[in-house]
C-alpha cells in the first residue's frame, strides 16, 4: 500500500483540479479562478447554509458545478458519528475553557511544528516565523466553531469551517506541486523553487518548490492525521500531565469528536485512533518517522521561537517570561525541546521557581482532593495563563478572528461564559478574577468580548 505520506485527498483534489483546469468560454488564469473560489468560500458560514447552497450567478458554470458537487458530498457526517459523545466533548470543551488555550499555546502548536515536512508547509504558507499569531488565530478560528455547542451536529459552523479547510489543503497541494498530487506521488516529483509571479499566499506556495521523493506530499494523509492528533490526543495528554486528566470515557468522547472532524477534512478512518493507547502509539510512530526526515533549511527552530516570543510578549514580569518555554518543555518532552531549539539556557531562578511551583501544585492538589474532589490549583493556574494569552492574542478586539459575524458573536458569548470555572468553588473564581484583573474590567466595562 502507498505510504500515508504519499496519499492525499482524492475528493478535494479532484474538486480543485476541476476548478483550476476546467474549460471556460473566456479563459481565466488559475489565480483568477482561485480568487473566485475564495469569494465563494466566504459564503460558507453555517452548517445549515450548506444545504442547497448555490454559487453566485456570475461564477462560470464549470467552477460552480465543481463547488456544488464538492459541498453536496463533503458536508455529510460519517455514519459512525455518535451524537452523545460529540455533545459530551462540547461540554468538556466548555469546562476546560481557558485551560484549553494554555495547552493550545504550550502543547498542541509546538508538537505541530515537530514534523519537518509539516513545518515546511507552514513556513511556505506565509512565513509564520514573522506571523506566529496568524497561525494561532487561524487555529482558533477552526477549533471554536467545531467545539462550540452545535458545531458539528447543529446550526453552528463547524462543518462549514471544515469544508473550507479541506479545500484550502487541496489548493496548497495543487499549487506547491504544480498539478495533480497523485501523479506527483507516482513520479516522485521534484518541483524547483521559482521566482514569484505576484503577491499573496497563492503565489508564495506556487514559487516555493517541493521534493516529493524526500518530503512526501504537502498536506498528506500522514500530516493531516498527525495535526489532528495534536489537537485531540496532545490536549488530553497535557491534561494528564497537569494532573487534571479526564476519565477514559470522556477522553474517548473527545477523540471521537476530533475524528468526526477528521472525516470532514478528508482524513482516512484508519488514521483516526479511538482510544488514548491507540493515539499514543500512532503519534509516537508518526513522530519517529518524521524525525528521520531532513528539511533544509530547517524551519522548526524559527517557528518555535516565534511562538514562544508571542507568549512572552504578553507576560509582564521578567522572572516569568521563561515560563512558556519551561511549560512547553514539560508538556512536550526532551525530543521536541531539542527539535524546536527550546533548550537554550534559562535562568536558574526561573527554572527553580517553575519546578517548585509545579511540584507544589501537584502535591497540594493531590492532598486536598481527598476531601474536595473538584479542587485544582492546576486548573486555576492554567486558566489564568490561558486567559492572559486568549485576551491578548485570540480576543483582541482590534483584530477579530476571521469568522463570519454570526460565528464571531457566538465565540464572544462562549468566551464570556468562561469567566468562571464551573468546577471551582466560589472563592477560587473570585481569586482568579482578582489575579487576572477581571474584577476591574467587569465593574467598569463588563466582561471581555471578542
TrEMBL record:
The lineage's top-level taxon is Bacteria
Organism name: Massilia soli
Q: Which PANTHER family match?
A: ER-BOUND OXYGENASE MPAB_MPAB'_RUBBER OXYGENASE CATALYTIC DOMAIN-CONTAINING PROTEIN, SECRETED PROTEIN-RELATED
* Residue ranges crossing the lipid bilayer per the database entry: none
Q: What is this protein called?
A: DUF2236 domain-containing protein
Instruction: Name the InterPro entries for this protein.
Output: Lcp-like, MPAB/Lcp_cat_dom
Q: Which residues form the ER-bound oxygenase mpaB/mpaB'/Rubber oxygenase catalytic domain?
A: 127-362
